[in-house]
Amino acid sequence: MRILISNSSDEPIYTQIFNQIKAQIIKGELDAGELLPSIRGLAKDLQISVITSKRAYEELEREGFVETIPGKGSYVAPQNKELIREQRLRIIEGSLMDVVREGKLMGLNYEEIEEMLRIMYEEE
To answer: What is the pLDDT along the chain (124 residues), one digit of tens a residue?
Structure first.
């Protein structure tokens, strides 16, 4: 498991950890049943507070991405891939709606927005 912390980000460190672990689970980089680093181990590796790593794990558990077994550790919870896909699609649709609204405010037409999206998609 690889986590990169940005001290220059406006996003809290626990949120950065949460988002990166969640993304790795969704992408299938972390498998169901896989043991995650201990809270203390993660804190030591990332040179952060134990409280920060604990909060990230608590958020992951609250959203159903992680299961914690007292005395044994935290494990990746089994995921409903179709449900996750639907959740991600809703997020993308929301982002695209923001783009459409902003584009209309700027007077862009559909073709201009489509061209911007095509260029960005090909560059990524």
So the answer is: 899 999 899 999 999 999 999 989 888 899 999 999 999 999 999 999 999 999 999 999 999 899 999 999 999 998 777 777 787 888 899 999 999 999 999 999 999 999 999 999 999 8
pTM of the complete model: 0.70
| Contact status, residue 9 vs residue 16, Cβ threshold 8 Å | yes
Residues whose CB falls within 8 Å of the CB of residue 75, separated by 6 or more in sequence, listed in order: 33, 34, 35, 36, 66, 67, 68, 69
One DSSP character per residue, 26-67 reads HTTSS-TTPBPPPHHHHHHHHT--HHHHHHHHHHHHHTTSEE
Tokens, residue 79: 């995921």
Question: Are 62 and 26 spatial neighbours (Cβ–Cβ below 8 Å)?
Answer: no
Decide the pairing of beta strands 73-76 and 66-69: antiparallel
